[in-house]
Amino acid sequence: MARKVFYSFHFKNDHWRASQVRQMGALEGNSELSDNDWEAVKRGGDAAIKRWIDDQMSGRSCAVVLVGSETASRPWIKYEIEKAWNDRRGVVGIRVHRLLNNQRQSATAGANPFAAFNVNGTPLSSIVPLHDPVGVDSQGVYGFIRNNIAAWVESAITTRSRYS
């Protein structure tokens, strides 16, 4: 049975890339929103966004942060990382900038979103891995993620259990 995870990503920039990862089928992710549905959630303001995130994260064992060029600067990504960690869920990052978007373009690598957090004085970026999939092209990167994502999630869950 596939692990239930929460996918965290910058919707505007990386929705297409995130969809590719979600459709791999290696994990059971939170419900996918269309552009219109996400806009409806956003119209409800910060409280509605927070409620949606909290509801979607419920029952999930790990947050999978799909890291693109601007992910680290997004306030809701920061909220999702902090919530997942504080709720004792596994947390793992995967760079997706080399997957092609709907216009067949890759992006630049962004900053590590875990660098903004500390756990008892230890940078979260030294605890939570940010995987940078290898491959000569988008297909190769996709295959690398598909072949490893389940193991990365299991490792993240085990790592999280070591910290109180």
UniProtKB/TrEMBL annotation:
Pfam families with a match to the protein in the record: ThsB_TIR
Domain Thoeris protein ThsB TIR-like positions: 6-98
Domain of life: Bacteria
Record-linked InterPro entries: ThsB__TIR-like_domain, ThsB_TIR-like_sf
Name listed for the protein in its UniProt record: Thoeris protein ThsB TIR-like domain-containing protein
Organism for this UniProt entry: Methylobacterium brachythecii
